[in-house]
Amino acid sequence: MKLRRALSVPAATAALLPLAVAAAPAAQAASAAEIPTCYDVSNGQYHNNAFVGRSFGIPNSITLGTHWTTYTATLTNASAKELKSFELSARLGSYVYNEGERDLSPYGDLQYWDTSQRAWKTLRQADGKAGGTIPGPKTLKPRESVHAQLRFRVSKNLPMDQTYDAFTGLTGTFVDRYRDTDCTAHGEAGGGFYPRKG
Q1: Residues paired with 76 in a beta bridge
Q2: Where are the alpha helices (H) located in 15-85, listed in sequence order?
Q3: Sequence-distant (≥ 6) Cβ neighbours of residue 175 within 8 angstroms
């Protein structure tokens, strides 16, 4: 099994947790995307044990079409420190292993439930891929959790001339320090699936 699946521990209890995503402050610090990753800074020596990620509701396979699959994702700060410059994002895509294979992301739709506006909001990146940033808290204290309700679907137009190792999930990113250098680390809550024609 791939690491991403091992980190995605399904938990029926996650469905009972509040599906609230806190509104982010208007003024945020410099984006974590502008800081190098702790993995790169440490030449692979950095180990992030800050998060426990759980997801509930992602099936092993989905049928292509207009039907939405809804799931819950939870990230809990399992460390003893407060996580700073915290950012939430979500993705829908597939791993590309060989030349000529395609990512299913442009053929998919991903949305999160905005609790303040009581509406589903679409996540779409500039390059057409399904994913993006979700409003959330700027910090995450020890033992504090953040929850999101997400839903996704994959179009019938997805070419089925290859096998897709697809995934969707929630990612929490924060700024940490490794040997006196600021760097970003992250944790994930999600799961993998395979698309199929109906």
Answers
A1: 52, 145
A2: 38-41
A3: 32, 35, 84, 85, 182, 183, 184
